[in-house]
Amino acid sequence: MTSEDSDRAAIRELVCRYCRGIDRLDMDLVRSCYHDGAIDHHTGFDGSVDEYIAWVEPKLRGFDGTMHLVANHLVEFAGSRALSETYGMAVHWGTPSDSPRLNFTSGFRYVDLVERRDGEWRILERYASREWTRSEANLFMPREGPGPAGRRDREDYVYRLRSQLVTP
């Protein structure tokens, strides 16, 4: 694997960590994806990363759940900086199920200026562009039966299993 391939993989993982943080309401994980002083531009928000986290967390808590799915990912390198463009879809569901503001799917792009500092890639500036939105009101069905169900906190099984990782 070339250095560029390794950097590309690290930047894609950065985007996936951000999505995990958003979906699990792990704002520490979200914050760790940005450099100090980073700027975020979202639909309805424009400001510093710390202001963004204070803005987005209560909005996310208004949903029963969210799921961000990452698709196409392109990276252009220029030394210790890179431009990352990520296409994806985000599913949102909430109660009441007939609320289009709580039950929708959107197509998005994350256009990120990222920088490697001390060997770690993080976001300097992000444009989160909502490309389209489709209402899913009254389309979500209840679970079919018992079984694993994700949680939106650090009690989710991904954190439980993660704690069992040991370095040989």
Automatic annotation (TrEMBL):
Pfam families, alphabetized: SnoaL_4
InterPro entries in UniProt: NTF2-like_dom_sf, SnoaL-like
Residue ranges of domain SnoaL-like in the record: 6-126
Domain of life of the organism encoding this protein: Bacteria
Official protein name in the record: Nuclear transport factor 2 family protein
Organism: Dactylosporangium fulvum
Phylogenetic lineage: Bacteria, Bacillati, Actinomycetota, Actinomycetes, Micromonosporales
